[in-house]
Amino acid sequence: MSNRPRPAVLVDRLISKSKPARVQGLAALLLSAGLLLLPWLVKLDGKPHADWQQLLGRFHPLVVHLPIGLLVLVPALEIAGAWRPALREAIAFVLSLAFITSLGSLTFGYLLAYGSGEAGSTVTRHMWGGIALAVGIALCMLARPTWSSRTLPFAYPLLLTCTLLTLVWTAHEGGSITHGSNYLTKYLPASLKSLTLGNTTRVQPSNPMSFYTKQIHPIFDANCVSCHGESKTSGGLCLDSYDQLMRGGKDGAAIVPGNPDESRLLNRVTLPASHKQFMPAEGKPPLRAEEIAWIRAWIQQGASPTDATVAGISIPELQSDALLIPVGDYSALEPEIQQMEKSQGAKLMHVSGKPSDGLVLYTVDAARSFGDVQLEQFQNFAPYIVEAELGRTSVTNASFDTLAKFTHLRALHLEGTRVTGDGLAKLASLSQLTYLNLSSTQVTQTAVAPLASMENLHHLYLYDTPAKPTPDSESTQPIAKNPQ
Fold this sequence. Notes:
- By secondary structure, the protein is mostly helical.
- The protein folds into three domains: 7-179; 211-300, no CATH class; 325-481, Leucine-rich repeat, LRR (right-handed beta-alpha superhelix).
- The protein is built from 18 helices and eight strands.
- The relative contact order is 0.06.
């Protein structure tokens, strides 16, 4: 006969023979069993509930870091305790705090998902990860005395390892809800990305040339699926595919073909930004007037998944990437570029591993400390920069003299800056510029008029500026000259 302990004997060994500890152990096991039943007792039905639940639930991102820090401290104390045994005396207390705070984090997280009506595969996995983590910590609390007494010498190290791995996986799922499922893998090399992601692809409509596929779905994909996708489905509404879009959510149909006024999705995106039901939510920018006009026209004409055109909407094809002019080899400047990447200010990022694909001037870390003088310092790299991220910096109209030297510039972000448009005509010489964002500046219609001669400027954004056109002019101008 095998000498392996039976399951009942293992449980008996995990629970100390002393009466207080035995009561605590049984309580921990019963609580763990209750946690495992929680998803069936309070089911995440994808329907919003009470506001007070959402209010309390929003403390989850704050509370969740407490059990993480405490649990990571446990193996550090165990290892250090091999040289300084006194450190191990605190581990039982740390585990207890980790268990209590994990219950608090789980409670707030459940209130957040249940109260706001969030569901989906990633939300479900994150929920189960939180439950498994709390149960794992409870089992570690019970198993540690048996490890110290050598009754079950392997149970505690094994449980602690599994619990730490559960912590990593649960944290990843939580990050995926906030940042997207590709947050950790987005910048992996292609070979590693293929191993990590496999051949997973998003379901596409049957007609890849339809107006829905080329214009409508990209709007939802960029602005909506982070909250209304397969991984996270708020209000039971999923916008990953046409079929799911037309299926609607808990509140009913999102799109009513032929009737824009009765289409809840269109109503939500046209509400005032301060309205409680305004979409996109969570502080995301509203859809552009152009995008709303496309959605409205598409719904008005039947919301077809296959029609290639919509009457009254004319969108020229953008320039093919194959026609982009290589920028040349900047390898000789690589030491300076690498030095910038280590700094905390503006830096140059590689578009790809091929030098001919160019560089991106990235200023997010520099914020308001980056102005016209700082921009001039990048003139040495001007022929190799294909995109300049200058949004919300301190650059002014004086920057146009420098930017005119960025001969391969294809995209320029100036939103939220102090430019007024004086000297903007100097950019007309940039023959490859296809994207220019001047939103939330003081540029005028007169200032942007010279840009009409730029044949390749397909995207000109003028949201929240004096140059923003009237709704009537927005719906009639072609996209190549269509300010947003």
